[in-house]
Amino acid sequence: MQARTQTLWQRILGIDRRWLYLILFVNIVTFLVAPIRMPASVSPPVQKFHDEIEKLQPGDLVMISSNWSASTLAENQPQLEAVITHLMRKQARFTIISIEAQSRDISYRLAERVTKEKGYQYGEQWAHFGFVPNLIVAIKGMVTDLPGTIKQDVRGTEVSKLPVVQGVKSLSDYKMVIDVTPSGTVPIWISYSPKNVSILYCPTSVMAAEAYTYLDSGQIKGMITGAKGAQEYEQLLTVVGLGTRFMNAISFSHVLIIVFILLGNFAMFMNRLQQRREG
Amino acid sequence: MDWLLEFLPRNLDRLSVWIGVLCTLAIYSLLYRENPVYRFFEHMYIGLAAGYSLGPLGVDILYRYWIEPIWIQGYWAWAFVVPYGMYLYFIFSERYGWISRIVIGTLIGASAGLFFQEFSSRYLPQLNSTLQKPLWVSDANPDMTYGMMINNILFVVILLSVLTYFTFSYEQRGPVKRVAIWGRWFLMIGLGAIFGNTVMARMALLIGRIYYLLNDWLMIRVGGG
């Protein structure tokens, strides 16, 4: 008995998914290595984020909440780098706090590298408060007594002896909180922070859609969404960081996925049509 | 030749990069098929992540907030805090399970108290912002454009239709049902946006790993950087 030959549509539907992975991999490598840069149009949340930091005066104090670990490094690292670069340009003082154990070391190393390049002094202009496991308890503690809640920085120095937070009694003495995170921590900052402190948000792309309600109501003043937002922010700062380097590959991998989806659906419809015709 | 010398694991920094590459490739080998190398590295990663957390928990939390206040500052009452928290583990005992309820009661009480503050700070400003949205251009709102007007009307229409969809107190019939169906469609569009962002996030994570392979391991300067 002669085996029935497959139609083109059936062959497309039967492609082994590993070929698609390979094509995606080649696509990403090509557009990572290619020396081309696509300009980004800056979205309003990123512009608002930038404008809010531009309002800072030299010496203003900013709290960065860095809660990401190795698993979301590709999205949160470019955000944190860009934010620290901008804060240093504005000569703002900043402190970092982590509610993720891995993030304590990752954010500390990153901030140390970026600040060293620009000659920012640890203890004088910035500090890392280490790891606290429960954000609600930490914020409520910092609102009433910041040095008593944090006690020591990541290097073991008493917080009350750090020049960067000299005279700071509570979180109300800060101008701004910037939450760089892959998890739902921004509602906690919104709920428990003092009302005079502006909140800015750097989520991973997955978390961004839910945050638009907070943007709309003014509870957060600006947002950098994932690596795409980081690229827009780097463009505003006129620096080339990881966001810019990743963006070609992200854009063209999206194009490829859209092509795959269209092709797969088209093949499915054509196959059904053919089967119906054949009865 | 110089490239090859730099490429090889000749010092600790390069060795750590090679180990990172080995881990990355082992984890991604799952894309080809399920295999024991992937399983080994998956378990190793979970074990490392869990073990790593113990260090910061011990140094930053237990020592800083419990041992130091008791031994150095003399706040002896803190000695009861950790044993009290550990009563929670009585939940595994049939005979003494009731003890764990004391801790659970404390936690529920604290959470309920905190929720009052959370509700007022988190949801009331959103309600306030929604109710204050101007729906037409007038002299009272000089900064308002027609684009903003359409945006605000859409916002209110979507909000009301989605709220209607989630009204389960009575049977939805007639016009209410039609509005609820619109609400469901708006929800689907919202979920589609979230899914699109999820794809972007996953792509970024993959690109981050490939960047590591190219930039850190093969030392190919990526994106003209």
Describe the protein's architecture and organization.
The complex is a heterodimer of chains A (279) and B (225). Chain A is of the alpha/beta class. Chain A has two domains: 8-37 and 247-278; 44-239, 3-Layer(aba) Sandwich (Rossmann fold). Chain A has helices spanning 8-13, 17-33, 44-54, 73-89, 101-118, 135-144, 146-150, 186-192, 205-216, 226-237, 242-278; strands at residues 61-66, 93-98, 126-131, 176-181, 198-203, 222-223. A six-stranded parallel beta sheet of chain A has the order 3-2-1-4-5-6, with helices on both faces. The longest helix of chain A has 37 residues, at 242-278. Chain A starts with 7 loop residues before the first helix and ends with a helix. Chain B has helices at 2-7, 12-28, 36-71, 81-86, 97-122, 124-131, 146-165, 174-217. Chain B contains eight helices and no strands. Chain B has 225 residues and is an all-alpha fold. Chains A and B meet through helix 2, helix 4, helix 5, helix 8 and helix 9 of A and helix 3, helix 5, helix 6 and helix 8 of B.
Task: Name some characteristics of this structure.
heterodimer; A: 279 residues; Rossmann fold; 2 domains; 6 strands; 11% strand; B: 225 residues; mainly alpha
